[in-house]
Amino acid sequence: MFIWLGKRLIVYTSVMTSDQRIAGIELGGTKVICGIATAAGEVLQRTRIPTRGPEETLLDIRNWLQPRLDVASGLGIASFGPIHVDPASPRYGHIGATPKTAWRDFDLLRAIREWTTLPSALDTDVNAAALAEIRWGAAHGHDNVVYVTVGTGIGGGIVANGRAVHGLMHPEIGHMKPRRLPDDDFDGMCPFHGDCFEGLAAGPAIRARWGKPLNELPADHPAFAMEADYLGQLAVNLLLTASPTKLIFGGGVMNTTELLPMIRNAAARHLNDYLDLTDPAGEPRELIVTPGLESNAGLLGAVALAIDAS
Amino acid sequence: MFIWLGKRLIVYTSVMTSDQRIAGIELGGTKVICGIATAAGEVLQRTRIPTRGPEETLLDIRNWLQPRLDVASGLGIASFGPIHVDPASPRYGHIGATPKTAWRDFDLLRAIREWTTLPSALDTDVNAAALAEIRWGAAHGHDNVVYVTVGTGIGGGIVANGRAVHGLMHPEIGHMKPRRLPDDDFDGMCPFHGDCFEGLAAGPAIRARWGKPLNELPADHPAFAMEADYLGQLAVNLLLTASPTKLIFGGGVMNTTELLPMIRNAAARHLNDYLDLTDPAGEPRELIVTPGLESNAGLLGAVALAIDAS
Fold first, then answer.
1. Which of A75, A200, B87, B138 could form a disulfide linkage to A23, CB 3.0–4.6 angstroms apart?
2. Is the complex ipTM higher than 0.90?
3. pTM of this prediction?
4. pLDDT tens across B20-66, in order?
């Protein structure tokens, strides 16, 4: 809970103390991370469960987590999307139109509430990651942050004025369409849109186009300039809508470290000096960055959700 | 001021009563509207001043408004952008990189504070319009709203969780780039980006391309389908980032009433069923709409800013 006292002052009134225990579930497309952390963001225990169909995956989550919940004062769930996050909707807590057909319309929240009455908070994995990066990571102290993940898909979370953005659904930024590069005739792989950002620049598109992932190609391979251009265009669309002061690119594709500076250059080229990219002191901003939280980012995102909801 | 009490409950604690008087200034690219309204949104007096250079325009504003300020308890300023809206920035209240060169870097807020000590609130005209539409117009009761204006330029305001989005700057949505239509070889008119949305689909681009504004062309003219496709793409980019439950298209170009249903169709075609466009009761949403506040929308936006800041 927080109390808003005017244009710039927010007083956090969380009832949690930093040594309280929070349970977190990061439900990803290929793996689930479950854990127990302190409210200060220290991970005490964690496990990794492969994502299969909903029933068997949820059973594994329950078997690991339920015996550990008696020390926890809250549970956060950070899920792949699309997922219905409006508590006023009858579909609250349901997975939406995902290509993972076994999960489509699955009532995730209900399946978890069958075995725990802990206060639970739910959001997308990417909104949760943005909140965790604000609390403990690369966006510490920022109010307006976008977290993009580039992996098996392209997704994004948006925090505006310190709070995750929902609304009609939640941000689904990977399905915007970039301007195609003239020498790129790849059809794209998105089942809904073909050549949207996700269809052109997520990990599977890189493999389909070049036969290898980016980290197995030399840094002067044309795959890099193409990937950087598309992600630079995505960065521009996000800077011109959500107006973040930190734009974080994470996910497996970003583990290729040569990519970040190329994305920055591509974004600057597409912006063409339209935005002032200096900070109030006139220094260049560290605007487009990689995550500060490494392997625990998703789990800590789930923990951050539970803390914010307390 | 409001107090945030949990996931869905906001308690407004405005100190204003509905018969209090608020002064508003809507600073537009071609005209300024100044007025006095009640805190309930009733416009009591207004005037229209042509926008010229900053000194002569501000002098006219002062001459009309200053004698009327003794009844007012607040002043809202809704300005064309880009304008620096972060109170922590040394450039707060300054106009940014506008094509209107006489206004570039002009310290608007200081020029107004030279002749009034009333509490003043400043935001972009489009953020202000979104807040006014939420308070009194087409988005009444909604928390997540985007207001787009399509006129001499294309601009937009975003409200997330009930509050205007700022950050690095403020939303500058008109400068994203659409996917070009295959039969469109027009270069575009944006001095920064050529064929961004603003460069391709704002009023001046329509005139340059077809020789006439849209409202002087028959509804089966190809200009309509092209305009609707570009604005439909813009709608999709906004739905996939800000995730609004109301997306309002206003501005002079939207006075051509045939355009709105064509934009809705184009947006649905580009989304290709990716988003669920029904409401929680399963009914189709009135998602993309025109403004509810007509000629007073901008002025009431300025008034809404002053009320929100009180």
1. A75
2. no
3. 0.89
4. 999 999 999 889 999 999 999 999 999 999 999 999 999 999 999 99
Query: Min CA distance, B249 vs chain A (Å)?
Result: 16
- The answer to whether A18 contacts chain B (CB < 8 Å) is no
Q: Are residues A144 and A217 in the same domain?
A: yes
Do A281 and A300 sit in the same domain of this protein? Answer: no
pLDDT band at residue A14 using 50, 70 and 90 as cut-offs: low
A chain contacts of residue B167, beta-carbon cutoff 8 Å: 143-144, 160, 242-245
Residue A247 has pLDDT above 70, yes or no: yes
Query: HEC string of chain B?
Result: CEEECCCCCEEECCCCCCCCEEEEEEECCCEEEEEEEECCCCEEEEEEEECCCHHHHHHHHHHHHHHHHHHEEEEEEEECCCECCCCCCCCCCEECCCCCHHHCCCEHHHHHHCCCCCCEEEEEHHHHHHHHHHHHCCCCCCCCEEEEEECCCEEEEEEECCEECCCCCCCCHHHCCCCCCCCCCCCCCECCCECCHHHHHCHHHHHHHHCCCHHHCCCCCHHHHHHHHHHHHHHHHHHCCCCCCEEEEECHHHHCCCHHHHHHHHHHHHHCCCCCCECCCCCECCCEECCCCCCCHHHHHHHHHHHHHC
Hey, which residues 61-90 in chain A have their CB within 8 Å of chain B? 86-90
Mark whether A144 and A275 lie in a shared domain. Answer: yes
B115 and B145, same structural domain? Answer: no
Q: Are residues A239 and A188 in the same domain?
A: yes
User: Per-residue pLDDT averaged across A49-76, rounded?
Assistant: 97
Number of domains present in the structure of chain B: 2
Q: Which of B3, B175, B236, B285 to mutate to test the interface with A (most CBs of A within 10 A)?
A: B175
Gap from B301 CA to chain A (nearest CA, Å)? 17
Q: pLDDT at position B1, please?
A: 43
Indicate if A95 and A216 belong to the same structural domain: no
Answer yes or no: is pLDDT of B274 > 80: no
Give the pLDDT confidence of B181-205 residue by residue, as tens digits. Answer: 998 999 999 988 999 999 999 999 9
Specify whether A156 is located in the same domain as A101. Answer: no
The residue range of the domain holding A53 is 2-129+296-309
Contact B274 A97 (CB under 8 A): yes
